[in-house]
Write a sequence for this structure.
């Protein structure tokens, strides 16, 4: 079977399953537990535009999650169907940032690609942050000044609370060529941000907003 689950969908399923088994630890009411199980199942199905019958049968197994052990087994089953981020190499990254001299690139071999909706890294030497992802099957890159001042707030990418810093990017307006500065607070740790990201729409909207 082809891989059909995006990383953000995988993290969304994880979140739903965690909520499901934690409720089982608290609630002793079978009716409440069954109702939550059905609601959780429907929420997960709604995260997909369409599913074949075999794919739906795999997703349906979330209804069998009763405890943490069940959840871990379920995650291991569905992870083999996660479609990783597009093949990204150091060469393709360098092409995305042609104006950056001595571009620092993380060790791509150490990344868990099935966990990532984007790759992001901080270059503390130049006080910059870099983000690479795909939009409409095309690789796109974003870079900007990243504030060293960290605060607790809501990330503009994953929409979860955590340690965030201000990313500022300068873009040129197509109408008059005027340079415009745009800033948003995002997670300092991009790996944590990826795990918190449960809807790719948030990521794509952020990238388009920062680059448009």
């Amino acid at each position: 079977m082809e891989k059909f689950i995006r990383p953000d969908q995988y993290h969304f399923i994880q979140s739903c399953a965690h909520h499901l088994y934690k409720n089982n630890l608290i609630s002793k009411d079978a009716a409440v537990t069954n109702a939550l199980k059905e609601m959780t199942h429907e929420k997960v199905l709604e995260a997909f535009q369409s599913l074949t019958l075999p794919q739906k049968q795999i997703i349906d197994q979330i209804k069998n999650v009763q405890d943490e052990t069940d959840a871990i087994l379920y995650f291991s089953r569905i992870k083999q169907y996660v479609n990783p981020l597009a093949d990204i190499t150091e060469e393709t990254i360098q092409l995305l940032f042609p104006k950056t001299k001595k571009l620092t690139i993380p060790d791509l071999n150490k990344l868990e690609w099935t966990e990532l909706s984007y790759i992001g890294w901080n270059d503390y030497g130049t006080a910059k942050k870099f983000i690479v992802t795909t939009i409409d099957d095309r690789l796109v890159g974003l870079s900007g000044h990243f504030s060293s001042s960290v605060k607790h707030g809501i990330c503009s990418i994953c929409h979860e609370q955590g340690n965030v810093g201000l990313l500022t990017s300068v873009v040129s307006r197509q109408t008059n060529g005027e340079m415009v500065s745009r800033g948003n607070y995002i997670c300092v740790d991009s790996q944590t941000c990826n795990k918190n990201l449960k809807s790719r729409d948030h990521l794509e909207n952020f990238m388009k907003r920062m680059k448009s």
Remarks:
- The chain has seven helices and six strands.
- The mean pLDDT is 92.
- The longest strand covers residues 161-172.
- The radius of gyration is 19 Å.
